Amino acid sequence: MALTVLLAPLVVALLLLVVRPGRRAEVLSVVSSLVVLGGGIALAIATVHGRVVHELGGVIRVDALSAVMVIVIGTVASLATSAMGRTLPVASDAATRRRAREYGVLVQVFVAAMLGAVLVANLGVVWVMVEATTIATTFLVGHERSRRAIEASWKYAVLCSVGIALAFLGLVLLYFASAHAGAGPRAATLDWTGLRALAPHLDPKVTRLAVGLIVLGFGTKVGLAPLQSWLPDAHSQAPAPVSALMSGVLLTVALYAILRVRTIADAALGVGFLRTLLVVLGLASLVVAAVMVIVQRDLKRLLAYSSIEHMGLVALATAAGTPLAIAAALLHVMGHGLVKSVLFLGAGEVHHAESTTTIANIRSLLRRRAALGGVLAAGLVALAGLPPFSLFASEIAMFRAEVGAGLGWAAGLALALLVVVSAGLLRAGRQMLLGPGEPAADPAPHRAIAPLVGALVVCAALGLVAWPLATLLHAAAGVLS
Amino acid sequence: MTGVAGAVIDLAAVAVLVVGIAGLWRRDLRALVGLLRIQGVALALVAAATAATQHDVGLGVTAVLVVAVKAGVVPTLLGRVARSDPGARESAPLINVPSSLVLAAALVGLAVIVGAPLHALEPGRAAALAPLGLATVLAGYLLLVTRRRALSQVVGLLVIDNGVALMTFLLTAGVPLIVELGGSLDVLLVVVVLRALLGTMRSRLGNVALDELRELHD
Amino acid sequence: MTRDLVSLVQVVAVALGGLLLTGLMAKVRARAEGRVGPPISQPLREVAKRLHRESPRATAGRAQGMVPTILVVTTAVAAGLVPLAGLQTAGRSGADALVVVFLLLTGSLSLAAGGLATATAFGGMGASRAMALSALAEPALLVALAALAVPAGSLSLPVLLAHGLSAPIAMVSPSHVLAVLALLIVVIAETGRLPVDNPSTHLELTMIHEAMTLEYGGRDLALVTLGAAMRLGLLLALVGTLAVPWGLATSSSPLALAGGFVMVGVKSTVLAVVIALVEVHSAKLRLFRVPELLAAAFVVASLAVLVGVVAR
User: Fold this and answer.
1) How far apart are the C-alpha atoms of A478 and A103, rounded to whole Å?
2) Domain total of chain A
3) Quick check: is B217 in a domain?
4) A247: which DSSP letter?
5) Which end of chain A is less enclosed by CB atoms within 10 A, N or C?
6) Which residues of chain B approach chain C closer than 8 Å at the C-beta?
7) Count of CB atoms within 10 A of residue A237's CB?
């Protein structure tokens, strides 16, 4: 099953090399994403009661946490691929056709790399896969080939590669420590379960260095301050579906690696070390996001900074580390994936219709483009953490868990910053949505709006009734404790 | 680990670091790429000598891989870019060269201090040299943040990568082969991607220094 | 008694050898550039000729007159102290490396003071440049010597060299290689050779050492030239010995000592030829890049120390 999930996007990528870009190619992309989503659900059913699925001679290892991640990837990928056709120019000549093909193939490779990262057992291979996502997305970020897009993709590739190199150094040190954990050099391993078992015997000094480097390295990719400078550029320059994938799920995939390492770090060093590190990074991200959201003038950059904010919140919950905190963080990851994809795709529609994403130049959307305006309004409300959407529920649960774990002061600070960010988001929303106007002659087609509405409904439903996810999320949190 | 192989590891490990620091000194982009090639060879020597002392076939394969990728393909790819722009020099590093060299010396000291627990855990001679890898990483980082030309930044990135690789060979005689293979492939692809991006940059924007690229800001 | 004799012979050998090495380097450069060049003994003859002349001292007072003597005397004392041919020299308490460095520094300091004392534009310019270089070169030299001292645990040159003789494998240790490399760069800067200074030009934009000696004539000029040549000879011999101590006489038998003298002559000749050939193939660095070279020497020297400490 896990292998099918992993192979689906790769097979489709190969097919897209030969299929002429156009309607049929788009359908293929959506089918691959739906297969991933379906596979994720099947894996969730298989692992929800604590079973672990091993495939490919133990290279692939799926537990409930992996299944949750696969579901998030599948959901966001389905949304993103369904909107791919809207962002591409009509393939008229050979050059545009080649670029459309490159685009379709790279998106599939990107999805496959993310799946690889959450499905493998070896932290070294996780690293390889996360680096592969950087490689696949560099061209996607620079797809427009404009001066700004090229600048963004250069910064993205260089900064993330440097960050990820630090993470690799950390992994090497962890491997070194595992070779000296008393079980002999043959027991040296980067396997997550193996490291987990050896954790109490790891040398604390070396492990501290290793964990610090790993968290900083993957933290770069998560977009945690102070290593976030690439994120707003990349997310604002990429085509809308790519922004949705990057913001909605790529950040979380990097965070997944930190979640896995956390259990090892806590067993080897006690909870204090990583907790301090994550609280500092999380609060710094929230501060950066709060400041930048207030002064932001561009819609896509606004959304990018909001992603930094949400990653900061999840980092704080990870710092708390109780099963409740982790389950809430995972729910938050799901909700954020849904809402952020909806908003980025909505921003893509706005760009399509208005030829701008500058907030000051967009007015009275609710009157002029009711459907699109409605989606944006609901999305911004959800992002601001207001009910009935699941982000409200997960934020409350995360704060509760943090208070319970003795991080009340951090939770209070985060709450204050959260209010600032939400105010900034809603102010931007008011600017863009309200005001007088006549309905436009070319509203976005239902085909483009329907998936977005669907995603928002799902998000709201998750906020109201946690079933059937609650069991799965608790199983996933249980994996980590 | 005594005798010839030990001496080779010692010298080659130091060479990796010295070449990394020399990157801070040279301004000529082609010379930078040449340094990268030398560093690749030195790195492969460390891997090969370690493989010989430990009779480790996997590491031997890795050594061949390192020569092919880090001393062969990657510098050749970058060299072509450097040659297409003759006389390309680093115009003005953000920190002048003597200061960055002295800073590099300080970073080496820092690496020795930070790396002390590694030696404490394994008293062997190779682990004692591991701070050199850490220092190479820091030198590469310095190169990356103080240089304005795109190509120098790529070189900085690769110096960081070589430093990490040096640490793997010295500390653990390499990581599992599957990770090693994936890692090498990643490095190769990153270079290919960055090179292609350089090509696009040049054809779209002309030869610009990176600090002229600052349209994206808040 | 033998010790004092050895030291005396060393001083004479360094003086003669320094002058001959200067001539040899000029000859090698000339040949490599396709010229015949002056005979090797040319500097020796010039010094001998000028020693009989009077020294014109028009502008400067006593200060300038003392400079040549101080330069020659300090270099001569240093040459007598260091173990070049045999481990045992007149320095009974052990010929500390720092003492040697400070003796040489006193010489260059007096030369700079002399350059300033003449109150001419070139003299002051040369002095300021020389001191700027020296300020960078001396730390590098000290750190490089410290790196060499790490294995023996002593800065005393005989102890350090004896340790080197007893452990030949240390010759290829990274620390040793780096330290010698740093020493070589420093020696090139200290002796005013390309690519730092060009000894064969009097171009105001570039000259360093020559600018300070322009105002000397007659016997004074002879002494300054002799001092500079001794400095070159001493540094080359010292670096050669530190890099490869083999051939150093451990006993005080005349035969061993004679062998020691031959060996140190060979080492410094080889070094001189190599440096001359490097000079032919390298352009002079622009003055503002010279600090980069010396900073590089400093970094290499610090690396040598750190590697030495780490890998001990």
Assistant:
1) 38
2) 3
3) no
4) I
5) C
6) 7, 10-11, 13-14, 17-18, 21-22, 25, 97-99, 101-102, 104-105, 108-109, 112, 119, 125, 128-129, 131-132
7) 26
Chain C touching partners, 3 or more CB pairs below 8 A: B
Report the gap between the CA of B166 and the closest CA in chain A (Å).
10
CA A42 to chain centre: 21
- Report yes or no: A99 at the B interface, CB cutoff 8 Å: no
Q: pTM for this one?
A: 0.86
Quick one: closest CA in C to B10, which residue?
A: C174
ipTM for the whole complex: 0.92
Nearest CA in chain B to C300: B18
B-C contacts (CB, under 8 Å): 64
- Whether residues B129 and C310 touch (CB distance < 8 A) is answered with yes
Please check whether residue C79 is in contact with residue C230, taking contact to mean a CB–CB distance below 8 angstroms. yes
Q: Which two tokens stand for residue B93?
A: 């590093």
In a domain, B218, yes or no: no
**Boundary residue ending a domain (A121, A156, A183):** A121
Looking at this protein, which amino acid is placed at residue C283?
Answer: A
Within this chain, do residues A318 and A458 fall inside the same structural domain, yes or no? yes
A234 shares its domain with A87:
no
Residues A256, A302, single domain; the answer is no
What's the average model confidence in pLDDT over C117-138? Answer: 82
pLDDT in tens, B165-181: 999 888 877 677 777 77
| Chain C residues in contact with B132 (beta carbon < 8 A) | 307, 310
Enumerate the residues of chain B whose CB falls inside 8 A of the CB of residue C303: 14, 17-18, 21, 105, 108
What pLDDT is stored for residue A280 in this prediction?
95
Neighbours of chain A (3+ CB pairs under 8 A): B
Are residue A95 and residue A154 in the same domain, yes or no? no
The conformation of residue A420, written as its DSSP 8-state character, comes to H
> Quick one: pLDDT at residue B1?
45
Whether residues C299 and B102 touch (CB distance < 8 A) is answered with yes
Amino acid at B5: A
Say which DSSP state A358 is in. B
Domain boundary among A121, A136, A168: A121
For chain A (481 residues), the mean pLDDT of every run of 10, in chain order, is 90 91 88 95 91 88 94 95 78 81 93 95 92 91 86 90 91 90 78 89 92 94 89 92 93 94 92 93 95 92 94 95 92 95 93 88 88 93 90 93 92 94 93 87 84 93 81 89 78
Per the CB < 8 Å rule, is B14 touching C291? no
What is the per-residue pLDDT across C205-252, written as a single tens digit (0 to 9) for each? 667 777 777 778 888 889 988 998 999 999 999 999 888 888 787 777
Residues 6 or more apart whose CB falls under 8 angstroms from that of A110 comprise: A133, A136, A137, A140, A242, A245, A250
A147 touching chain B per CB within 8 A: yes
* B10 contacts on C by Cβ (under 8 Å): 173-174, 311
Number of domains in chain B: 1
Domain limits at B146? Answer: 3-212
| Domain boundaries, position A16 | 1-121
Amino acid identity, position C81 = L
Tell me the pLDDT of chain C averaged across its residues. Answer: 83
